[in-house]
Each structure stands twice: as C-alpha cells, then as structure tokens.
Specification:
mainly alpha, disordered N terminus
C-alpha cells in the first residue's frame, strides 16, 4: 500500500504554481566597481593638476594688466582659488567696472562650489577638523576627479592629489605671470589680455556634454555679448547667469507637456 500511495500522489496534478514560480526571483546584485590602483589615481590627478595649474600664468598676466599689484594678484590666488571667478573679477576691473559689481559677478560664479561641497561631503566623508581646509580645494577639477573614482579611498586620493598639485602650481604660476607682466610692460600690446578668456573656454568646453548644458552656455554667451555695450562692466556676467534658470524652466515645461501627452 505505501507503494500505491506514492504512485497516486505522483499522478496528482499540482494546484497552482510551485513556490519557486510564485515568488519573483531576486534581482542580480549590481556589479561591484572595479578597483583602481592608487598609482593610477595619482597619475590621473597629477595630469589634471599640472595641466590646469599652468594656466595660473595667464591669470597673473591678466591681473597685472588690469592694474592689480603682484601682492594683490597673489592674494587672490591664495585666498579665492577659483579660476573662473578670478578671471571674471580682474576682467571686469580691466574694463573699468565698479569693484563691487566685479566682486558680485565673481561671487555668483563661485557659488557653484558650494553645491560641489554638498556632494563631496557625502562622498569623501572627511574628518571634521579637516573639512575647513579641504573646502579651499573644492573646485571644478577636484570635484571631477573625485567623482570619477570607483571607491571612497580612490576619491579621497584623487581629491587630495589634484587639490594639492593645482593649488601649489596655480599660485606659483600666478606669481610668475604677474612678475612677467611687469617685465613685459603693456600687456595689451602683446595680446595677452585674451589669455584669460581663452583658458576659461578651454576649461569649460569639455564640461558641456548634454544638450541642456550647451543651451545654457550658448544663451549665456548671447546675453553677455548682447548686453556688453549697454551695461556697466561686470553687469553682463550677472545677466548671463540668468541663462541657467531660464533653460531649466523651459526644460521643465517641455517634460511636463510630454508627460501629459503620454497620460492621454
């Protein structure tokens, strides 16, 4: 009888799917990021730090050509240390702009670093006593290198090496550019006043990866150049900053209209 019972139970069809079929299979875990050697991180960070740090020479020349002393020029690089804001400040002063207006334009360009800091604080998780010193190095280049790393350790190494290399080299080349500008005399005669904008565009261009970013940059250029002849020096930079919220507002409306069309 036990054999008949086993045979009969084998012929009974299952009511409903089996337990394994009822429960959805767990998704495969995300693959762990590939490790990156410390030497590779240091190599990449040094490449960025040296390449960008050399452009401090252009800032030194531009600042001296705008009428700032060597001491004032070096103080800007030591204390401000954000290339775009520094170029904006001395560029507005060179054009005869009001110092307060020039400082306001530089300030608004530097606000982006605060948003970088919010992201980097979560990524790096540096000890409290170190953070005030690390904040001085929160700029475009250190943020880009840190965010490109697969682990927190490599992000810390990339941030530190990039920041240290760039800070030291930027200040040394700033001093060299300021002293060199004094030796050259009239920098306008050498066409060195175009060095600052050229360096800034070279740094900016690779960052414009999406259509939205390119639209912001294009509209900012149009606004800046359009208002340059009619507004005091330094003010067109502030007007050009309106390109970002304008494009984001239009992008939001476009996405909202697309969602409404999909829901119908």
């Amino acid at each position: 009888m036990p054999e008949q019972t086993a045979s009969a139970s084998a012929d009974i069809p299952a009511y409903g799917p089996s337990r394994s079929a009822q429960e959805p299979s767990a998704p495969d875990p995300a693959p762990a990021p590939e490790p990156k050697s410390d030497s590779a991180v240091v190599r990449d960070a040094l490449g960025v730090g040296i390449a960008v740090g050399l452009s401090g020479f252009a800032f030194g020349v531009t600042s001296a050509g705008a009428g700032l002393t060597v001491l004032q020029t070096c103080a800007l690089s030591l204390l401000v240390f954000t290339g775009a804001s520094q170029f904006a400040l001395v560029g507005a002063l060179a054009a005869g702009g009001n110092p307060l207006t020039a400082a306001a334009g530089a300030f608004f360009l530097g606000v982006r670093n605060a948003f970088y800091g919010l992201r980097l604080s979560q990524l790096l998780r540096l000890p409290g006593p170190v953070r005030p010193f690390a904040a001085q190095w929160v700029i475009d280049e250190t943020t880009a290198v840190a965010l490109a790393q697969p682990t927190r350790r490599s992000a810390r190494i990339g941030f530190t090496v990039t920041g240290l290399t760039l800070y030291v080299l930027w200040n040394l080349t700033t001093l060299g550019g300021a002293l060199g500008a004094e030796a050259l005399g009239d920098t306008d005669a050498w066409g060195l006043d175009a060095a600052g904008p050229a360096v800034f565009l070279a740094l900016l261009a690779p960052m414009l990866r999406t259509a939205t970013e390119r639209a912001v940059a294009g509209i900012a250029v149009v606004l800046g150049l359009g208002f340059l002849p009619v507004l005091p020096a330094g003010v067109p930079v502030l007007v050009a900053a309106l390109a970002a919220p304008a494009v984001l507002w239009l992008e939001g409306r476009r996405l909202g209209a697309r969602r409404k069309g999909t829901d119908r």
